[in-house]
Batch of 2 targets.
Target 1
Amino acid sequence: MRLRRSTSTSLMLNVLVAACALILTFPLVWIVMMSLKQQSEVMTWPPTFIFTPTLENFRVLFDVAQAGATSYGTIKVDFLTPIANSVVIAFGAVTISVLVGVPAGYVLARRDVPFKEDIAFFILGFRFAPALLVVIPLFSVFQRIGLYDTYFGMIWVYQVVTLPMIVWLSRSYIEDIPKDIEEAAAMDGAKPFRIVLHIVLPLLKPGLIGASLLIFLLAWHNFALGLILSSTRAPVTVALLKLLNPGVQFYPVMAAGLVVTMVIPVVLIVLGQRHLERGLTFGAVK
Amino acid sequence: MPRKLAALRDHSTNFARNALICSTLLVGAVGTLSPTKADDLNWRQFEGTSIVWAYDIHPYADAVAAQLPEFEKLTGIKVTPELYPDDAYWNKLTIQLSTKSPSWDVVGTGIQPAWDLAPGQLLEPLDRYLNDPKLTASSYDYKDFFPALRNALTWKVKEGQIEPGGGQVWGIPHGFENIQLFYRKDILDKYGIKVPTTPPEMSAACEKLKASNPAITPLGVRGVRFWSSIHTAAISIAKSYGVHDFILKDGKLETGLDSPESIVFHKDYVDMIKKCAAPSFANDNWYQVVDGISSGRTAMAIDSNMFGFWNNVAGKPASGKIAFAPPLHAPNSKNFESNIWIWSLAMNAASQKKGAAWLFIQWATSKQVELNGAVAGKLVNSPRASTWSDKAWLEYAAKPEFNNFVDTFKSVQDRAALAFTPRVGFAEAMNAWAVAMQKMVNGADVKTTLTDLASGIRSSM
Amino acid sequence: MDPRGINGTVTLQPTAGQLASSKDEPVKSAGEWRLDWWSIAAVVPAIVVLLGFLFLFFYGIFQSLTDLRFGRPLVHLVGFNNYAALIKTEDFWSSVRATLGYAGLAVLVEAIFGLALAKLFATEVFLARLMRPVILLPLVLPPMSVALMWTTMMDPQNGILNYLLSLVGISRFAWISDPTTAMFSLVLIDVWTYTPFFALIIFAGLQGINDEVREAARVNGAKGWATFRYIELPLVAPYILIAAVFRLIESLNQFDIIFGTTQGGPGDSTAVLSVRAYIVAFQNLAFGRGAALMVINWLIVLVGAFAMVKLWRFVRQRVS
């Protein structure tokens, strides 16, 4: 935006941004603070913003050395495996979705396949049904064909969450790329595959990264599928609830678990945001 | 085949075994962790198998997990625990069992969920194993479990419904709770409040407490939209008013929730909740009740007694401050009532390792293992009478920080029994009751709500 | 302001626009046969990956036509009895209202806030550029895992939100503990978590609008608001609608947020169809009736998504 702004407008905008940032991050900040408190300090009134922080909750979370040594109970709260599971499943799901979905999105945007709009709606339709409807026969089938509690099975099921969105989003972004570039290249004799690879994809990259980031986060969010279809490969959303043990101080430890879970998505967001900003200017290519 | 081999082995090594028994008894007298003092059972008959034990995330599970290596040494059976938080556990249990999946061998269950699972033959009846001398040690002593608990887990299935009073054994009690009123005696002493015994007394005490210190919630009770919030305070107090969830009328089960006694009870109870409970009542689960008592933001609670015990353990913030009393009773009734919840171990009917599963159930609920769990402060309350007369446990539980825990347990246990009527379809009716309770606390008219509730239950029966 | 003049300066995709109108005609070129096979081959994997779940879905529909109860060995086909029984109960209709109310309100508010947020963070002021990663932060917390935290934050007596409100003079708000405010509180959680979803998609769309377009409009005398209303808004409208389609589908199916906090209560005030279906199917163990509720939920989503997609196509045509 090359509009010149008065300093007062700029100031007001800055204030607005700061206010929005505060609202967007406050619950996260509160949870981080909770993870550094002791249980008795958690629900005090008035709530404490100033307190002596303790790392005890994190220590409990990662105490793999001696089950039973912690005040958290005898059962080892194995937290690293679920995080690894979540990472593998979410990344795997996103990768497969991008590999399968972007070509489909391209075709739906550019080419004329029979029943094009019906296919597009059909792909979207897999998001319609609540997962709970199919989860029981899915569990039986997975057990029978040996996909229960496997990364492959989980990544496949997660396609229902991630694939439709990639197809529709990449279709949308591709439709916004002017067709004449491809036409020109085609007239110069380039094969369609090369056109896609060397012309469309680079233009698509920022939008694709944004979309991939979104579906990664949605895959990260999922609870029901992970609960029913896995036991040792359970994602972190299931493991977090396992921190609610009646005999112990659960609020701050659960907050600590959430903080640890937050790290990976936050890192991805910070990395991904940079790509989003750079050159999302389709029009300039003209 | 393994049994034949075992028999052969027994015969041929008789003398050696006697010698072994003597020395084992000697070692046992010093106090080992071995649960098999008189070893007439071959613990190693299923050596080499591995089973999966599914349970709720709970100190009871902690108590067993701490001793798992002993089991492995004893039997050569590998046990993999699979633990889940409350609601997720019931969800997974339902799906695992109803799809007849063999992946879980031993499952933890409560009484009521077992009612729903039994008619479909999803749980394995355990009498066969109890009565088989080759599979159950003579020292196991099934009669040692409190009678109320044994009765609650024994029933017949007739025409798709539960018929209590004899029948098959569907689960072995592992740990149980009776409902009590536990309170912060430091707070009650500070404001000069006597421990209430009836709901009107409680309402009065709450008003006095609130006047003295508005920041403290006088009473913590569960209010979530599930039958679990009925099964603690509500049903125990209701029973003393003469309220029954189901009554037998002309030989058929009828809902008892719209009876005159029920209306009286609900008026008192709802009034008490409005005056005493936290404003977040409708969302309060056990987490909030426990956190409240432990931090002192709640003065009293009517819930499972072991919450009070766990928070009295030395080193906890509320240690030594929580005392116990029987639950509230109706003003015109002499006696209180107390509901029970039993965490029991049951066997998946689709399991392919039933023998090994039974050995695990037997071991985990044996006298020694239960005692060890209790003395570690985790397995409270033990379902075995022998634990409550064992010196080690009594010495531990009589420590000053636990106040009158043992005495109150004994006096409450005399009257504690399952307050619900066994039936398939229990969950639907009782969940509806919890929802109705929420509506009444929020101001809905008691009589109309109860009438609607009753007709809803009737139509689903 | 001359409307025709503005149309004339929409130079974003004139050729694309002309070609877009020919989207409905098959692309005629020499290598047509080859292209078509490639196209089909490109689409097929997506369909295949998802196909298996289709059969399960039909099985679920089949189960809704039975009187299946978990734990009961005998199952009978009862046709539409489950559906008929549902339609007669008042609880069912209150669930439908709750579902539609929740989803409609949430998506509407998120679209507006998302647009505002995207515009705000697209400005070049210092803080906006610095804090862009913040837009997505609410999405890092899985709703089911954070539900307990929200419950503590929304505690009427000791919760941090009420504390903050008390600082500005608002006395105790009941949040999720009262039937009249519970739905609003849940929508608030949904809006907080998912407005970033809209914001990101719209933000990407805003970046695609050529600065020349805005310059041209300004030169022609269009002020900021008019630029926004006649140029930017139509161009990002397709993105808003795509995001709305997905958010609508998910909010009509929303389970985690609601079940994690209120479980459908207090009373029946937040008992949306997905929560009611879960309780009926998995807690009351009447899976036939639960499946019927889920199928009805699916139908509602189908109608909503269909309408939304039609709107998207309409807007897309108009924009190009």
Note: Chain C is about 70% helix and 0% strand.
Target 2
Amino acid sequence: MNKTDAVVVRGLRVRRGSTDVFTGLDLDIPRGQITGLLGPSGCGKTTLMRSIVGVQKVAGGTVTVLGDPAGTRPQRRRVAYDTQAASVYADLTTRQNLRYFARLIGAPREDVDRVIGQVGLDGQADQTVGSLSGGQENRVSLAVAMLGDPELIVLDEPTVGLDPLLRSELWAVFRALADAGATLIVSSHVMDEAVRCDRLVLMRAGRIIADTTPDRLLSDTGTDDPDAAFLALIERDAASADDASTDDPSTSSGTGHAPRTRREAKEEESS
Amino acid sequence: MNGARTLATAGRVLRQLSHDHRSVALMLVAPSLLVGLFAWLFSEQEGVFDQYGGPILALFPFIVMFLITSITTLRERRSGTLERLMTTPIAKADFIGGYALAFGLMATLQAVITVTFAVWVCGLDVEGELWQLGLVAVVDALLGTALGLLASAFARTEFQAVQFMPLIVFPQIILGGLFMPREDMPDVLHAISNWLPLSYAIDTINAVTAGEDGWDVFGPLLIVVAFAVGSLILAALTLRRRTP
């Protein structure tokens, strides 16, 4: 384990209802970078993010964030989280929403105007969020996560439903935050956003199937199109998962985030 | 618990209300309309409104605040804002305290308007001090707020939240001594009524309207306060930072 990593996940197990989402997940996320979390919907991206910010009930394993267990008191000021659906008050104005969260976090008042500018909502600052468009509402929610000076910013599909120009502007903001030293974890299922990340974590069915960089992803799969690269990896994983189930489990679960099947994890658990 | 965050939350809840004029109007005026309807109903019968008007003053704020609080906090749970709050430094007690403070303020306004209306427009005859009647109405509204906050923890949908009303509120009204003096009830029901906070609220109101004072008024009132505070603490304890 690297002491400077922002997030260290070891053997994470999460059950939601009667299904296992994770059966022993391992992951390291370095500081000061933008890590993209990619994968088809339902693969566990949101559950992983919820575990990192400490609102997910976990069945086992450890999640260490900025050196402390996830969700503990000192972290609530250092970690910011934007949920997938806009989690702001529809009956308050943009500014009233941001003022409230700024007061809770203890962020300076000037921050409110700064983040409104960063997400490009100067013209809508005094409109109630309920009267904004869906994309604008999401940006209010995103602005909340940029209040204060968070060291880790966890964003669940922040650019969904936005036009290309706005998406590119927001990615410039994310880049600026990372350059200033913040760690960002951004989930997306738009593959053309993947190339804007420093690092890529690809998930499928509750497992990490690749932990790579955009360049390596393209060269490994021999394509120049992120979409094709992703599909190739998923197909490769589906094939190897079938092989692995007939293998001896001890051979395939070697290094930190090697892919493992659910059966392997279960066998490990029971032995 | 942190005063600044509790106040920020109370301010935020009131600001949300201020954008919803119709809800504010309903909250402030609806109990007066119901009291007026009640007074009109018994206008031909001497003394009936004086007997039941007091307890009614305790009931309506209790019911209205229970409903408003349980639905509002449930909405917060379902919209994802509660989950987001749980990732910020706000303490669970700040969240519950902020709601109690905001709705407590609304309850005070509501009580002042309703008691004023009952006494000056409907001619409610009170032997005791008027401000005591107002105080009981405020405490009852707070009890409604506290139970509403607690109930919302056990409701997954708005539909369930509304269903809690017949379960939590109606038995307290039936056994509270409004329809039948509690002493005349079957022993088992009398014993149950001793464990229901609204019984003590109605005892307090009856003591005020009968012109009693001292412990006859403040004894049962303190029990209602204790129930309200107890529910608030339970509500804060049942709030979970981590959810499945």
Note: Chain B has ten helices and no strands.
